[in-house]
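S2.1 Query sequence (FAS1 domain-containing protein)
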Amino acid sequence: MAPGRLLPLLVAILCGFGVGASPTTTPTLVSGGGGASAEDEVLLLATALNRDYVGKAILPDLGALLRLDALPEVHRPAAEQFRALWDEHLTGAKGYDVVRDIPFTLIIPNRIDRVALDSLDEPRAREFLLEHVIPGALVELKDGHVYANANQHPVGVNLTCINMLLGYVLRYAQDTQEVRVVGHRHNVTDSLAVVFVEGNLTENKAAVNTNKLNKRNIQENNRYNEPQRLEMKNATKELAAIKENRIGQHLMNFLASMKSGTKVFQHFLSSSNLSQLLDDSSYMVLIPSDTAFQRWHPIDWGFYPFSVQEFTESVLRNHFVRVRQPPRMADLRSGAGEQKFKTLGGEMVVLKSKPIPNVNNVSIMYDYTLSNGVEVFVISEVLFVSEAVVSRLHQMHKDKETPPLLAFPWFGAQFLSHSFLALERDNRFTQITRFLNTAEIAQFISGSNYTFFVPTDEAFERYSFDILPDNVLASEKGVKLLLNHFIKGRLYDRDLKDGEVLDTIGGMPVKIHRTFDQNATVNSARIVESEVFVYNLGTMFYVDDVLYPELLKDEVTAITEIKTPDKNVPEDVGSDIYTTDVGQPDQTSSTTPTPAATSTTHRTFFTTSADVEFVPLEITEQNGSDDDFLLQDDEIITPKALPVKYYFAPKK
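Output structure tokens follow.
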């Protein structure tokens, strides 16, 4: 196997079989707020590496320790915002001791909704910040590590595979909420480390979740005795409801106890909303093995059907059966007939005993009876998934397809590389591929997650950009014009809303317009083809105009003036052919004059250095010999690599 294909294959294998605990595995930080039971949280806190500092009211001297110059420039705005919030809500806070000899780790979100945060009262704003403080430890990003934050909630580190890329996430341990770690830990001083994350530990589809309560402050703030506003969750009732419904928790505890074989199912179940459908009834659960899911995983690159969340959710529902009395393996072996059941998703499953115990002709590998009576059958295939189903799903979700890893043309810019290769195969885009091949923009379009508005050849020719030499396209203006066609972030057609203004990577804004028939334009460019997916890397939209063409207007004018001289061109010569008399007949000779040799030069005023160049007239002058005449056509056109020069014969 080629080395270029080995890395994605290794990642696919690691992701498919589960690194750490699941097929999505990146270090994540997780903090416990309200999804697990109180006793589970106590157990997690007991395993925290900084458990000796649980309950201690201590804070770092952030003003003295958090030096922005010790952090990467890209993270400094987030750190500066976090420090400003700290100064506003925690500096001088009563009941806390500021210490310098104890290590701390700050988990700094890359985005904080200041509007939402400013709407909170002072205690809740303080709680938000304390969720992101780990006292007594410099957090190590290692899979399985658990730390307690300053609000006495457990924060776990997990190695996860997301979109076929391994990395770390921090998970709020009592929720399914997790945030991806950006980069690595930054040691600001010997006693202060910083970890940057995408999102924040208290959000759950919101910028700030106000339902996390610091247990140390519950009594002093008397929050459980206050009337709760209608828009707030009642944390007490929520916890009670979870305790009453132990079906999902029993199953998750069982899956967590399995060291191998069911980790993929465990991951998908924990990420789904299926637990909301479970009640106190008896259930039969059909769990496909990890190998069963691995069958549908692309070996190197391709489409993984379970990357489509809605599809995965429906498949999971069809593996749960609500029954009065769950069948046992012993009953199956002793019975001669078949038993039919309807799944939560509405499909029918048939259990048979022969030739071996099976469900829908898929063999049952082994079974377990849980303490609450739930019967678990581990099966060898995923039910209701076939090649035909996956093929149809693939056509509907091209944006989920994982790409092959390209070493060419730009290894560090996979979206740009795949976009270039796709456009190169389409004869409508010869100009943009020439532009991409000439301008050095890979450093600005690294990695993935982009939107590219791609002008057609007709759009470039409308402004005579096709006559521009390569050095103009590669100039600062050329690069800026090209970057004005890229948006950071993947957009779908539904995201292009009327009146929306988007910032391009080139720095210029573009405005979206929607007509009554839902046709979309970007500035003056009409989208002629929408949602051309570049695997799961980003999206292209084909447009019929160039964005901000005025950036190269002067260059086009200069080239045009050079190639359209207003003098020294014979009046009787057209614009397509220029014939110059080279020899003159001998007028004094009594013999028949010898026809003069002529030099015929075909020219187009709007040529480029990629075409031909004219050489000095004296080079093409001939003496009228036959040998010279045969060589004439070869001599008047020179290779395009030579400097471009234009010479015209003076009028006689």
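The first strand starts at residue 27 and ends at 31. The CA atoms of residues 229 and 436 lie 56 Å apart.
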